[in-house]
Specification:
The complex is a heterodimer. By secondary structure, chain A is mainly β. Chain A has strands spanning 4-7, 10-13, 19-25, 31-38, 42-51, 54-57, 65-66, 76-78, 87-94, 104-105, 109-113. Chain A is globular, with a radius of gyration of 13 Å. Chain B is mostly beta strands. Chain B is built from no helices and nine strands. In chain B, a hairpin with a 5-residue loop joins strand 6 (61-64) and strand 7. Chain B is globular, with a radius of gyration of 13 Å. The model of chain B has no long low-confidence stretch (mean pLDDT 89). The chains are: A mainly beta, B mainly beta.
């Protein structure tokens, strides 16, 4: 089944404790991206990647890192999480990065930073 | 990416047709119009995409007038399970990068 998976689905952590949220897709998509969703602010893009070893900042990249060493994986790294990073995070992938390509979203990761 | 304007929320009843209109006055020649649906605590899901006139699939129809400055997503005979947030996105089909900017969307509530 074609899908985007994220782990963990729920995470409660404390300020400053490094964490990684994994994202994997099995559709051989070149484009992957991360979003955060907060009440009243909609979905905001954090980082995106056009292909292996190619990443770029989205609208709200501060406090986040990503890597794209393999085509299927695009982990999101929070080196020193802070409470303002408490949010619902979505990973997405598509064949290409244009609006004409259907984006497939993962199930989401709800992160709470205390 | 062209700015879009949609109603914040809409209410409907089961069995009715629902039309959600999106305004995009600054749409460019190469821009496509795409709609996504999002259920609570789930990722958005692609519904339909169009460039001009009318597009229909098994889920919805998309009406785009000749000037393309607006578009209307039409959901026939909605059910309770259509309660969701619907996002209208407008942008170039050939550009790559951070093209997916989701606004606030339209929160549709379907009542019994």
């Amino acid at each position: 089944e074609a899908q985007v998976t994220q782990n963990p689905r729920y995470l409660i952590t404390v300020t400053g404790k490094k964490l990684t949220v994994t994202c994997s897709q099995n559709m051989n998509h070149e484009y992957m991206s991360w979003y955060r969703q907060d009440p009243g602010l909609g979905l905001r893009q954090i980082y995106y990647s056009m292909n292996v070893e190619v990443t770029d900042k989205g609208d709200v990249p501060e406090g986040y890192k990503v890597s794209r060493k393999e085509k299927r994986n695009f982990p999101l790294i929070l080196e020193s999480p802070s409470p303002n990073q408490t949010s619902l995070y979505f990973c997405a992938s598509s064949f290409g990065g244009s609006l004409a390509d259907t984006q497939y979203f993962g199930p989401g990761t709800r992160l709470t930073v205390l | 990416l062209a700015k879009t304007t949609q109603p914040i929320s809409m209410d409907s009843y089961e069995g009715q047709e629902v039309n959600i209109t999106c305004s995009h006055n600054n749409i460019a020649t190469n821009d496509y119009i795409t709609w996504y649906q999002q259920f609570p605590s789930q990722g958005p899901r692609f519904i339909i995409q169009g460039y001009k006139t009318k597009v229909t699939n098994e889920v919805a129809s998309l009406f785009i007038p000749a000037d393309r400055k607006s578009s209307t997503l039409s959901l026939p005979r909605v059910s309770l399970s259509d309660t969701a947030v619907y996002y209208c996105l407008v942008g170039e089909g050939n550009n790559a990068g951070n093209m997916l900017t989701f606004g606030g969307g339209t929160r549709l509530m379907v009542k019994p």
